[in-house]
Amino acid sequence: MSKKFRLTLYILTGLTLLLGGCGSQQASHSTASSTKIVRDNGPEKKAIKLEKANVAEKKRLDREQTRLNQQQTALKKEAHHKKAKKSAKTNLSTLSYNGQQEITIDGNNPHFSHHQLSTAKGAWQTYHNLDSLNRVTGAAALLNQSLMPKSKREALTVDPTGWHNKRTAHGWLYNRSHLIGYQFTGQNNNMKNLMTGTRTLNNPSMLHNEMDVATYLKASRKNYVRYTVTPIFKGNELVARGVQMRAQSIGSNAVRFNVYIFNIEPGYHIDYATGYSRAS
Q: What are the Type VII secretion system protein EssD-like domain coordinates in residue numbering (predicted)?
C-alpha cells in the first residue's frame, strides 16, 4: 500500500470519528432540552396551611389559659375573703368588753369584693336562715331608697332567743333589735332579722351608724350602700355577745365602716347562755 493511500485512509477515518462525536453530542443536547421539569408545590402549601392552623390554635389556647387564670384568681380571692370573714367572726367572739362599746375592725375596711359591690341586679335584701338553736345568723342588702318602707310600722311581737326582759331605771333592758333597721327595708316581725339586744346596743350604738347610711341614701335615688349585719354568738349561748356592722357606699367612700358593738348594758350582768340578767 502506498504512503499516499494510507494517508488518505487516516484522514477519512479521523473525519468519520469527528462527525460521529458531534452527532452524538447534538442528539444528547436535543434530548436534554426537550425534558420538561414540573415543580410540585403541594407539600409547601400544606406546610403553610398547617403553620397557620397551629398559630390559630395557639391563640385559642392562650385565650383559654387567660380565662382559666382569671377564674383561678377570682376563686382564690373569694376563698381568702371567706377565710378572713370566718377568722374575723371567730376572733370577735373572744373579745372582752373593756369600757368601749363600739370598736373599729380592720381599720374600718368592710372588705367587700368587687362582685359584692355590683349594682347590676338593683337593690336587694336577704336574711339568713336561723341556726339549729333558732338564733338569728345575719342579714345582707344592697340598700337604696327603693327598699325604704312607706307604710306605718307595726308593733313588734316576735321574741328572739334569750328574750328575758326586765325594766331598769332607764327603761327596758332589752330591745328586739333589727339586724337591718326597719327604716331601710320595712322588715319588722321577721324572725331572721331580730335578736335580743340591749338598750344601749340598739340606741345609740347601732342607730348612729344606721343614721349615717340613711342620710346618704336619702340624698339621692341613685345612691346605693352595700350593708351587712352579723350577730356574734359564743358557743351555744342564746344571746349574742355583739354585732358586726359593715357598710360601703357604691362609687364613693361617703359611707364606709366595719365596726363591732358589744351587746352589754352598763350596770347589769347578762347571762348570755340564757338571757337572764342581774344588776351588777
A: 118-249
Phi and psi dihedrals of 12, rounded to 5?
-65, -40
CA distance 227 to 140: 6
Separation between Cα atoms, residue 263 and residue 242, nearest integer Å: 4
**Which of the four pLDDT bands, split at 50, 70 and 90, describes residue 155?**
very high
Tell me which amino acid residue 31 is. T
The vertex-264 CA angle with 263 and 268, nearest 5°, equals 150
Contact criterion met (CB below 8 Å) for 268 and 168: yes
**Grid cell for residue 9:** 485512509
The whole model's pTM is what? 0.70
Residue 35 CA, distance from chain mean position: 73
Model confidence at 94: pLDDT above 70: yes
CA distance 94 to 106: 16
* Beta strand segments in 110-224, E: 124-127, 139-143, 167-168, 171-172, 174-178, 194-198
Higher pLDDT, 31 or 178: 178
Which CATH architecture fits 67-279?
3-Layer(aba) Sandwich (3.40)
- Tell me if residue 142 falls in helix, strand or coil: strand
Distance from C-alpha of 69 to C-alpha of 257, rounded to nearest angstrom: 32
Give the CA distances from residue 74 to residues 113, 115, 159, in Å, rounded to whole numbers and listed in that order. Answer: 10, 10, 41
Of 163, 172, 275, 185, nearest to 229 by C-alpha is 185
Q: Is the pLDDT of residue 220 over 70?
A: yes
User: Mean pLDDT, to the nearest integer, of 90-101?
Assistant: 91
Domain ranges of the chain: 67-279
Element housing 166 (H / E): none
Grid cell of 6 as nine digits: 494510507
